[in-house]
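Supplementary Methods, section 5.1.

A reviewer requested that the exact input to the structure prediction be made available. We therefore reproduce it here, unchanged from the version used in the analyses.
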Amino acid sequence: QVQLVESGGGLVQAGGSLRLTCAASGRTFSRSAMGWFRQAPGKERGEVASISSSGGITTYTDSVKGRFTISRDNAKNMVYLQMNSLKPEDTAVYYCAAGPIGDPTYWGQGTQVTVSS
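The structure derived from this sequence is encoded token-by-token as follows.
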């Protein structure tokens, strides 16, 4: 069992930065791939970034490449999403997820990110 709690969302102007944090509980965290997903109003939830259990492999959806960075600290059971050069189209609820890449098992409650133009 893994429990996930996101934080760090908020309102930011276009071009600004935010850092999302996901605090995980559970002894299996260090063996779990992790991911960040987002869902904008009227759209389906989609994967933003993922990171392997060791942190050695990361993937990003094309629209955030070069702007977002996913990282993890297994000693602290934390996953991060550094978001730079934010755009209004990045506005969404962002979710932390744990489990197999592409088909996570556990989800956080989500944190709202709003980017104003």
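The two ends are 40 Å apart (CA to CA). These observations are discussed further in the main text.
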